[in-house]
Amino acid sequence: MKVIAENRQARFNYFLSDTFEAGLSLQGWEVKSARAGNVSITESFIHLELANGKIWLKNADFAPYQNGVVAEQERRRNRQLLLHKAEIAKIAKACMIKGNTCVPLKIYWTNGGLLKISIAIARGKNAIDKKQTLKERDLAREAARTLADRKAY
User: Fold this and answer.
1) What are the chain's domains?
2) Burial class (CB in 10 A: 0-12, 13-18, 19+), 6
3) Beta-strand (E) ranges in 9-137?
4) Could you tell me the strand order of the sheet in which 14-24 lies?
5) How far apart are CA 49 and CA 35, in angstroms?
6) What does the alpha-carbon distance between residue 53 and residue 62 come to, in Å, rounded to a whole number?
7) What digits encode the pLDDT tens for the residues 58-97?
8) Is residue 61 exposed (0-12), middle (13-18) or buried (19+ Cβ within 10 Å)?
């Protein structure tokens, strides 16, 4: 598994519960751009269309492929996520609860050569929770340093 793009802010801004693996409906130049690693999902989000049962990845930035026709390449177009109906229903049910949303976590290549996206059901953190996360991260970093110093002797 080779990670192409990761949304690190999602783990800091949200409590993540269920994760799902979905395929992406892409055009040819987008696949070539992803192979080059020119993808960003930091500003992207997941949009659910409950009327027709589709889930979309919106605002993901796929940089234009240099050797392709530039006029036909739209960087931030909506891309459909490929999931089973049962998974779509489970995501829709979870997102109907107040405070829950669906966020993209990372885009990666599988060992079989398929491009996948990892999405998660998330609940937003408030400022106190974010400070607690920073404090836990600092304590873990300090403990690792102390342990490394003891191993050096």
Assistant:
1) 2-125 (2.40.280.10)
2) middle
3) 14-24, 39-40, 45-49, 54-58, 61-62, 79-82, 100-109, 115-124
4) 2-6, 100-109, 115-124, 14-24, 79-82, 54-58, 45-49
5) 29
6) 25
7) 998 888 877 766 656 677 788 899 999 999 999 999 988 8
8) middle
